[in-house]
Amino acid sequence: DVKVTQSSRYLVKRTGEKVFLECVQDMDHENMFWYRQDPGLGLRLIYFSYDVKMKEKGDIPEGYSVSREKKERFSLILESASTNQTSMYLCASSPGFSRRFFGSGTQLSVL
Amino acid sequence: AQSVSQHNHHVILSEAASLELGCNYSYGGTVNLFWYVQYPGQHLQLLLKYFSGDPLVKGIKGFEAEFIKSKFSFNLRKPSVQWSDTAEYFCAVSPSNSNSGYALNFGKGTSLLVTP
């Protein structure tokens, strides 16, 4: 079974802090994704990566950056957290163009 | 730009009732279609998918969906829901000729509550 692991289930940070969300997948998938999930808005793509050190902006990249130094790990970085970044963050991976495999999510609260 | 519409944001059903969740998309070319489910406190998981062939697709837990190309629809159905089907359901669409795996658009989700 594919496993996508997000390092934290719940995270509370203060405005202005730098926040790192980590994601690891164990199936050698080329593609990895970061989404945020908000009530009534569904899933929105923040960034994705199709190879090591390669990244592409998704639909809502503002205020975020990413890092993919190793194939299995994809990090989402909030350079200076703001209250409007309070959300559920979902990491996913996929082999090629097919289905996404999702992690359990990180509920981030920015106070 | 392609978009995915889920018509019902909140659905409440009694156990044993039949379920149909609507999903329409706007895209002119051929598409791959997905339904994902998120049970309370759990991660998103694939319910079923359509790539080609028989437009009636059967998924896990008794769910099925029918792709109607002329209507740009991929509605999810289940003849008799159970309390354990309480979850949020997401329709997703990607162009079949996508060469990056990026272009998977999700609908806004439908929250289903099944009451005993």
What does this structure look like?
- The complex is a heterodimer of chains A (111) and B (116).
- By secondary structure, chain A is an all-beta fold.
- Chain A has one domain (4-94): Immunoglobulins (Immunoglobulin-like).
- Chain A has strands at 4-6, 10-13, 19-21, 23-25, 31-38, 42-51, 54-57, 64-70, 73-78, 87-94, 101-102, 106-110.
- In chain A, a hairpin with a 3-residue loop joins β5 and β6.
- Chain A is globular.
- The termini of chain A are far apart.
- The model of chain A has no long low-confidence stretch (mean pLDDT 92).
- Chain B contains no helices and 12 strands.
- Chain B is 0% helix and 53% strand.
- The mean pLDDT of chain B is 90.
- Chain B has strands at 3-6, 10-14, 19-21, 23-26, 31-38, 45-50, 56-58, 64-68, 73-78, 87-95, 105-106, 110-115.
- The chains are: A mainly beta (111), B mainly beta (116).
- At the A-B interface, β5, β6 and β10 of A face β5 and β6 of B.
Biggest interface, residues from each chain: A-B, 27 and 23 residues
CATH architecture of chain A: Sandwich
Class per helix and strand makeup of chain A: mainly beta
By DSSP, the count of extended strands of chain B is: 12
CATH architecture of chain B: Sandwich
Number of strands of chain A: 12
> Which fold name fills CATH's third level, the topology of chain B?
Immunoglobulin-like
Major sheet details of chain B: 6 strands, mixed
CATH topology of chain A: Immunoglobulin-like
Write the layout of secondary structure elements.
The complex is a heterodimer of chains A (111) and B (116).
Chain A: E1 4-6, E2 10-13, E3 19-21, E4 23-25, E5 31-38, E6 42-51, E7 54-57, E8 64-70, E9 73-78, E10 87-94, E11 101-102, E12 106-110
Parallel strand pairs in A: 2-12
Antiparallel strand pairs in A: 1-4, 3-9, 5-6, 5-10, 6-7, 8-9, 10-11, 10-12
Chain B: E1 3-6, E2 10-14, E3 19-21, E4 23-26, E5 31-38, E6 45-50, E7 56-58, E8 64-68, E9 73-78, E10 87-95, E11 105-106, E12 110-115
Parallel strand pairs in B: 2-12
Antiparallel strand pairs in B: 1-4, 3-9, 5-6, 5-10, 7-8, 8-9, 10-11, 10-12
